[in-house]
């Protein structure tokens, strides 16, 4: 949605997987013969900044927790003299607003994640068509252990983010998934305001995806809660 405002860059997961080759593939970058590791890393970062700015003067990046460790190891290579993660980040990307988007209902999040993994469908467009499919269609199957592991992991991710924010003396703008789904324009305007950008840029923006939750989600949630309550 930030991209659609036309004023807040083009936030994407440019550094999603812990592998420079994957970064290069995503960014469309080739490593020329004889290019050193530091020069290559700088090229990847510079290309991401160019793509993530989209001629708006504002760079946007989405960074998930599983991408965190490898990403910051690369920043330490680029900025060995900076004392903190925050200092390294801002040395590379400039003054930064950190936005923490989380989903309080971790069970619902886990159900959505496991179901997407199994079915292969991750996003559906607002018109109902498939937007992102990562594997052939398959019927999802209830799996208590997978749901519990996923739920525990998401809880830990939030703890890790909050610990890091505290360690780096960062006060992020906090967004809730539920609030974002319930009133996307209001939440988008909160972000634009925090960026000192005109909130009116959010007025014409509509969500580009449809919710995937259905009766399967509701059934899995109930079954998981029942199993947890009975210990079976």
UniProtKB/TrEMBL annotation:
<dbReference type="InterPro" id="IPR015124">
    <property type="entry name" value="Stf0"/>
</dbReference>
<dbReference type="GO" id="GO:0016740">
    <property type="term" value="F:transferase activity"/>
</dbReference>
<protein>
    <recommendedName>
        <fullName>Sulphotransferase Stf0 domain-containing protein</fullName>
    </recommendedName>
</protein>
<dbReference type="Pfam" id="PF09037">
    <property type="entry name" value="Sulphotransf"/>
</dbReference>
<dbReference type="InterPro" id="IPR024628">
    <property type="entry name" value="Sulfotransferase_Stf0_dom"/>
</dbReference>
<feature type="domain" description="Sulphotransferase Stf0">
    <location>
        <begin position="2"/>
        <end position="226"/>
    </location>
</feature>
<dbReference type="InterPro" id="IPR027417">
    <property type="entry name" value="P-loop_NTPase"/>
</dbReference>
